[in-house]
Amino acid sequence: MPFWYSNSKLAWLLLPFSLVFWFISQIRRALFSLGIKTSYRAPKPVVVVGNLSVGGNGKTPVVVWLSEEIKKRGWRVGVISRGYGSKAKTYPLLVSAETDPIEGGDEPVLIAKRTGVPVVISANRRQAIELLLKHCDCDIIISDDGLQHYSLQRDIEIVVMDAKRALGNGFVLPAGPLRELPSRLKTVDFVITNGGKNRYSDALMRLVPHYAIHLKTNEKRPLSEFQSGSAIAGIGHPPRFFSMLEKLGIALIQTQGFQDHQHFDAAQLAAFPSDQPLFMTEKDAVKCQAFAQDNWWYIPVEAEIVEAEKQGEKLPHFWKKIEALVERDKNA
Q1: Tens digits of per-residue pLDDT, 266-304?
Q2: Structural domain boundaries of the chain?
Q3: What residue numbers does the annotated binding site for ATP cover?
Q4: Binding site: which residues?
């Protein structure tokens, strides 16, 4: 909501509802802290990658990056996710690169395609982990989202934040964009800011596009070969995608932002010119593959993440903590 990121009177009018939201969330968290509500300790280390605010912050690229970096270090990794927007017949569901994104959810299918690691979706994180460990003897489990899912114990918490929008007006829902108060950041292990540095940054993330991929043929083409086109984005913050294309020198004739996790059909995109490329995110492409047209291209991005204070280093202190967790598990 735009008023979350401005000095709006509407936010103050909604503040009483935010106080109710905050009070309920505090009671819920306290019940877990006091042991009145039980939480699940997985048999393997769990790393939660989540958000403090709603909206697109770049969480999925972090999960992809983290999965790839863990594999490079010789450890086995699996991913669990709620699978927001999925319509599976049964849960938990093991997701692969071939899973229908309607059934498995767009982000889990994207993660499975990009990384090749096992991905399991379920609103019940314990059930997801149990199914995951049946298929893969993981050294580390990544929870895609779930920062506020206190029924799952975790070893490391990572918050991904849009560097420019940050925490907005600092209010919790619905007066602001936050699920928890800014003070929650003091208890997490790492804050990764997407697109720049702010006062919360432990690490900086830059999303780097290298080429466009044709949805029907999988042809890769350098982005420098495109001068113009149209663009769609069904992500948390569509303007970021459009701005990225314009910074690459691509003149956008027509753009349209859709809601996050939007389910597409051919009719929704029929109005875009067929004689110009139509660009979309990789997350959208997994849902449009079945009815792709000859002029449709998607833009994959690679996350580059370095320490905020020592740019050029890939979080050595973070990897030391991961290594310690793996060794702890082996010696248990």
Answers
A1: 999 998 999 999 999 999 999 999 999 999 999 999 999
A2: 2-75+139-206+307-331, 211-299
A3: 53-60
A4: 53-60
